[in-house]
Amino acid sequence: MYFKKALCIASAVALMAGASHATDSLTIAIVNNGHMINMQTVAKAYTAETGVELNWVALEEGVLREQVTSDTATGGGQYDIINIGMQEAPIWGAAGWIEPLNFGSDYDVADILPAMRAGLSHNGTLYAAPFYGESSMVMYRKDLADAAGVTINDHDSWSRVKEAAAAMHNPSAGVYGACLRGKPGWGDNMAFITTVVNSFGGSWFHADMRPALDTQMWKDAINFYVDLLGNYGPPGSEGNSFNEILALYNEGKCGMWIDATIAASFLEVDGVAYAQSPNAGNATGANWLWAWAMAIPAGSPNAEAASAFIEWATSKDYVQAVGNHPDFGWGSVPTGQRASTYALPEFQAVAGFAAAEMAAINSAAPAASDLKPYVGVQFAAIPEFPEVGSAVAQEMAAALSGAKSVDEALAAAQGAADAIMREAGYY
Q1: 380 found inside a domain
Q2: Which of 10, 154, 334, 340 fits as disulfide partner to 276, beta carbons 3.0 to 4.6 Å?
Q3: What is the predicted pLDDT for the residue at 22?
């Protein structure tokens, strides 16, 4: 497997690495989401104060994951700081691919939300610091729902969600009932699809870690997803992920959007309301848990400077810097990472989504259970998952586009996942 080969290379690189030293520049790989893009502007003050030049490499999240994984696993050394998340951080930390993080007492690690701290740690050691955290929830146009005579409630059934989407759907006026992820990727379409599967009582793997994509729960969930988005979503949904749907929503083209809570910071249309994620009888796992975090590749010669930047960029001071920045303000601060942010009066005054976001984060259930034998909500915290998830993602996009039937796509997905897990030696 690629992971095992890369681990051997990474271990050798770490042994050869020298001690960190002062540097005058850092190269940072970031996902091209709004808060990360804003950081490039806010961090000009950091450069002015420290003299450290920051070279940004902003990538679409699927490309970012591929490039960062390859570079970090093989000790390529392209980046001093990388954006990773909860799927990678504990695995990469245990493998020695990334450095443990140790910050000063003023950083206040205890202020980081417990769910985020736990998801980015291995054996109690923090390996990535959360820049922002998220769960998922329903964001909908209350004006359109009211005009259509429908209500959207916390933890609605999927059937009621479909009824609401149908009622708001008005393509002749440029409005689509439901905008949902369809772009293939284990962190793109599969992030949302997995929560649907969870809510139907399904999971990625059986107790013996054999893939479970041939179960009735997956079949029911994917048929529902394809029907909902095919009938009441925008054309070309198989090409849409977070950024594409955010643009559609802000153009007034979406009745509802079920996606990352962090999106609420960037919604510009009036009349947005929020509800907790729907389910088909099983609320556990119906909303995901994630953090985009910052980590240091093992053996980096600039580890000391990288650590200092991460400490600043994920601190309470950074939140204040965004809130007081003339280009941004308190509605644009990164959320889902620190408890103290939610206590700030300035933030409370503008963040109508805060209570719904925190409720979603607190209700996420990443622990292994009788339903799923792995840690993670919308992913499985095993090294092979990105390969499994990416293969399945392509099949689900094919089902959504109509290139394959749901049955054909699930059969192909089951076969691909089974081959990967067998090769990895799970059974």
Answers
A1: yes
A2: 154
A3: 55
Beta bridge partners of 260: 136
Share of the chain above pLDDT 70, in %: 95
**Quick one: pLDDT at residue 23?**
75
> 2-45, pLDDT tens digit by residue?
333 333 433 333 333 333 345 799 999 999 999 999 999 999 99
Quick one: 381 and 244 in the same domain? yes
Q: For residues 87 and 64, is the Cβ–Cβ distance under 8 A?
A: no
For residue 196, what are the domain limits?
136-288+367-423
Does residue 359 belong to any structural domain of this protein?
Answer: no
Per-residue model confidence (pLDDT) at position 17: 37
CB contact set of 347 (below 8 Å; sequence gap of 6+):
323, 330, 333, 341, 354
What spatial distance separates the first Cα and last Cα of the chain, rounded to whole Å?
15
3-state secondary structure the chain: CHHHHHHHHHHHHHHHCCCCCCCCEEEEEEECCHHHHHHHHHCHHHHHHHCCEEEEEEECHHHHHHHHHHHHHCCCCCCCEEEECCCCHHHHHHHCCECCCCCCHHHCHHHECHHHHHHCEECCEECCEEEEEECEEEEEEHHHHHHHCCCCCCCCEHHHHHHHHHHHCEHHHCEEEEECCCCCCCCCHHHHHHHHHHHCCCCCECCCCCECCCCHHHHHHHHHHHHHHHHHCCCCHHHCCHHHHHHHHHCCCEEEEEEEHHHHHHCCCCCEEEECCCECCCCCCCCCCEEEEEECECCCCCHHHHHHHHHHHCCHHHHHHHHCCCCCCHHHCCCCCEHHHHHCHHHHHHCCCHHHHHHHHHHCCCCCCCCCCCCCCCCCCCCCHHHHHHHHHHHHHHHHHCCCCHHHHHHHHHHHHHHHHHHCCCC
Question: What's the token pair of residue 326?
Answer: 């003339």
- Give the per-residue pLDDT at 16: 32
Per-residue pLDDT, averaged over 161-174, amounts to 98
Taking 50 as the threshold, does the pLDDT of residue 379 lie above it? yes
Same domain, residue pair 383 and 273 = yes
116/76 same-domain check = yes
Residues 201 and 302 in one domain: no
Q: Is there a domain that residue 57 lies in? A: yes
